[in-house]
Amino acid sequence: MPESANPAGGGAGVAKRWRGWLRAVHRDLGYLAVGFTLIYALSGIAINHIEDWDPNFHAAERTLTITPVADVLSDAAAAAAVAAAAGTGAPDDVYRAGDEVRLTYSDGTAVTAIGDTVTVQARSPRFFFRVANWLHYNRGKAAWTYVADAYAVMLLYLAISGIFMIKGRLGLRWRGAVLVTIGIAVPLGYVLLSGGPEAKTGAAQVAQPR
Question: In terms of pLDDT, which residue wins out, 9 or 111?
Answer without folding.
Answer: 111
